[in-house]
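Follow-up to my earlier ticket, as requested here are the two runs.
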Amino acid sequence: MALMLLGKLGVSPEQLIGRDGVRSPLPTFAAFIPRVAGAVPEGTRKLYSTYWNKMLAVWADRRIDEIEPTDVNWLIEHAKATVVQRRSGRGGHSAAEHAFEALRCLYRHAVGNRLIDPWRVPTEHVRKPKRVKSNRRALDAGLVEEIVEVASLTGNDPKLDALLLRFHIETAARRGGALALRLRDLDPVQCLVQLREKGNVHRWQPVSPTLMSHLQRHAYTRGARDPGSAVFRYVDGQPLTDRRYDHLWSRLGEHIESVRTQGITMHWLRHTTLTWVERSFGYAVARAYAGHATASTNRYGVTATYVRASVNEVAEALSALTGEPHPLADGTDA
């Protein structure tokens, strides 16, 4: 019966187990990781590459079917023990979670390519590391003012740092949104910037006319001409990198005690802006301002499907935040 079924499907027993009657060996980590790295989005590759390199350092010659649940637990603890210590670090808990997810990503592709059966995936038999509650919170206005003042008066490029801070305060964007910003993402007529952030999500975010003019001037004076040119640039014209953020907040921590002791970073400004928007304009506008998708868990009920803020409402919130009129804040559709 089985042979008849295979015959109808056009599949021979040899194709299932290999020409020599033996199932083909599964790829090693050294062979499989580059395949997966080339198949995932850039953001995923950037996030997981550190942990894939850790796997290659110890498992390069091991086949993907040779990993046991105890090996997964070892990797989790290894990631925690070898994490790069940062001001905002939380004892390696995030590294442990990312290492687990990086390994699970590999096996998800292995299952998808029918290289391994789902029940043989070792990460399915290990409890995912618990996510530690974030200690980020909204900052008070006085501290935000002090941060902006110190950034504007210190360092080797205070104009860049001040512009970065204003951009993040106004837009509540993540780092990636600023680093990915290109000239073609600036709409000076409607005062909108296109943000490309995690999850490959693109959205148009209102900015004040003042910020828009500064973004254009900054990009042009530092050599941006092509539509695909990065907006944020160093003095020498090179596109901005993550290192500027680390340098900025390390310097701010040398001057402001709260920044140093609490490990404040740019993401705290996102919390600050979104908290103010939510308190002043409600949940729907804050969600749109943040660029969050509609909750898939139906946590807020069916009503959440209908309560969606428009870009005009986001522009109204921005106008109240900055004290500047915005071309979309009058109720006109974008």
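Run two:
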Amino acid sequence: MASCSAPATDITPYFPPDLIPKVARRLTSLQDFFALRASCRAYRAVLPLTASNLASQAPLLLLAPDQDQTTESPALFHLSLRRLIRFCLPCTRQDSSYSFFSLGCRVVISYYLRNPSRRELHLVHLLTGEQTRLPSPEGSFNHFVLSGDLLITWGYFGVTIRFCRLGATDWSVASIRGSYVLDCMICVKGTIYALVSTGYDFDNPVYLLAAVNLSDSKCHGELILVITMEFNPNVYHVFQWKSGEAKWVRITSLGGCALFFALSYFVGCLEPDHPGIRKDCIYFNDEGLWSEYSSVDGSFRRSDAVYPEGKLQKGFRAPVWVFPSMC
């Protein structure tokens, strides 16, 4: 995104530069933010890409065409404005297939070369283009968790966890004890939590692990369990972990926050009153473009977009959540 912005000029700013961050925090479109940032050097200097400056930026969906869709280009989709932001996706290769994993305003891009056993991993900051080459883990992996500079990955219903520091040349390995398999993992205040089970059973509900703070409206504080109770339309029950009582308690309010999942994996939480996002809702990208479920009234709706004349899932990969405010 930053590389697509016009270079900052030396013209005298119309507004005092110290007021510009206050203006930027009200902008909900990356196009408007980067246009303001490119107005002059003084504005660019006071608008680094930080979480506070990007606090009001809406979540986006990264849309990448399938390998055989050579006429299409990647884009970021703005949910509330229903606007496409075209950009150059870093380090894509024509001779390989690839997949994406959401990490706030970053994504892990996994390349599968002509030999399926050979893979390349890159951690890419979508707003700056900064890239970090990652070691390629052995075996399968379904998602990634980033805590500081610690990156963790695992295979779905596996027993092995792989982790490394950014810049490391190899992965360390840990295993789950007992007769359990790993469903998912999240990081809460620097602590990694894992959801484990005894295996896949179609008769059991689907469990999703998330994190939200229900006391001071800052996300990533409390451990939350979301259970899929019904399908078509989807119905979810939400539970909060009460550590003092050592039990899960059902809740219907998320403190005004919104939770985001990529398939069955928790990828982010936005605080109350975030522009374009409904309070106490859970967002998914599993079917169609995205879906929204209200934990308060139980309403469920799916939404799609046109790009340019057909539904996005025709010729496009499953969209990936991108959060500019988690910079």
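The only thing I checked on run two: The CA atoms of residues 162 and 173 lie 5 Å apart. Let me know what else you need.
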